[in-house]
Design brief:
Radius of gyration: 23 Å
Shape: globular
Structural class: mainly alpha
Order of helices and strands: HHHHHHHEEHHHHHHH
Strand order of the largest sheet: 1-2
Largest sheet: 2 strands, antiparallel
């Protein structure tokens, strides 16, 4: 098992140093490869030189038949395994890449879940007071919560990007710097509603929170003065959705989906939305066009006099 673990550790170091893989993705790869090592150990193998193509295929089939794993998790696990074997071939540790022809199953194409503009407004209103009415707010933490949700919807940022924003990333009131997957930097505009909510938080709330700790550059702080966590933002959104009495489940990614969908419905070019979301490929962004096409089809079917059956 020691030899197997050494090979995996070398690959993970390569992903960290040479590839600059995002921390969360790296942790997922580590879990996936540890499950692969346990599988190989159960087969009585103690070196990756002993692995044959049929063993990799059997492992892949076991993943596919595991009802607890979704297709995307299966695909990621196999990507980690394939990457490991390719890396070992490149390093000269093995003579052949036995995983090269093992393909992951295609993940089902799921349409992103977006909420309407009216539902977004209800959610924002439920999260905290209007920026111009914070002086009378009984709970100033809700001023922070409103700023977080306004920023999520204004920028389409991932929750991991929002928790990692530092004060220095506020380039000016209208522009913010985000660091996406692989620490890739992008500049995103901030609308006036989010600007006002951020300003209210920075003036009225953050200074008192910052006094509770030794000091942190983080933009959003918790009630101990430390950087807010992703789990805390999930809870903030969940509480706001409950207060707004929204029927569907709302997550941080719901804001991202709604941001993209509403931009495209408003006439934005798909490549502009791609840049704002930080997608490496426009094909990732194009799934949102399916949402808007479905909406157009529904409107057409109900509104056009000769469209109804």
């Amino acid at each position: 098992m020691a030899k197997l673990q050494q090979s995996v550790d070398s690959y993970l170091r390569h992903l960290t140093i040479e590839r600059g893989m995002a921390k969360n993705t790296l942790l997922a790869y580590k879990r996936d490869l540890n499950s692969y090592l346990r599988y190989l150990e159960d087969k009585g193998l103690d070196s990756l030189n002993q692995v044959q193509e049929n063993i990799v295929r059997d492992f892949a089939q076991q993943l596919v038949t595991n009802k607890l794993m979704v297709a995307t998790s299966v695909a990621r696990t196999l990507a980690a395994v394939r990457g490991l074997h390719k890396f070992l071939l490149f390093e000269g540790t093995v003579e052949t890449d036995v995983a090269a022809t093992v393909k992951p199953p295609k993940a089902p194409r799921r349409l992103p879940k977006a909420i309407s503009i009216q539902e977004v407004e209800r959610l924002l209103k439920a999260s905290g007071p209007e920026p111009d009415d914070v002086s009378g707010a009984a709970d100033l933490i809700r001023v922070r919560d409103r700023a977080i949700l306004e920023l999520l919807y204004a920028t389409g940022a991932r929750v991991s990007e929002v928790v990692n924003i530092d004060l220095d990333d506020l380039i000016d009131p209208e522009i913010i710097r985000l660091f996406g997957k692989g620490s890739k930097e992008r500049i995103v505009p901030v609308g006036r509603y989010a600007q006002a909510a951020l300003q209210a938080y920075l003036v009225r709330v953050r200074p008192s929170l910052a006094m509770l700790s030794k000091g942190t550059p983080a933009l959003f702080l918790n009630q101990r003065g430390s950087r807010l966590s992703r789990q805390s933002i999930w809870q903030i959104i969940s509480d706001a959705a409950e207060s707004a009495k929204l029927e569907q489940e709302v997550s941080p990614h719901t804001f991202r989906h709604s941001f993209a969908t509403h931009l495209l419905e408003g006439g934005a070019d798909v490549r502009v939305v791609q840049e704002l979301l930080g997608h490496a490929s426009v094909s990732t962004t194009q799934i949102y066009t399916l949402v808007t096409v479905d909406a157009l089809r529904e409107i057409y079917a109900t509104a056009h006099p000769r469209a109804q059956r």
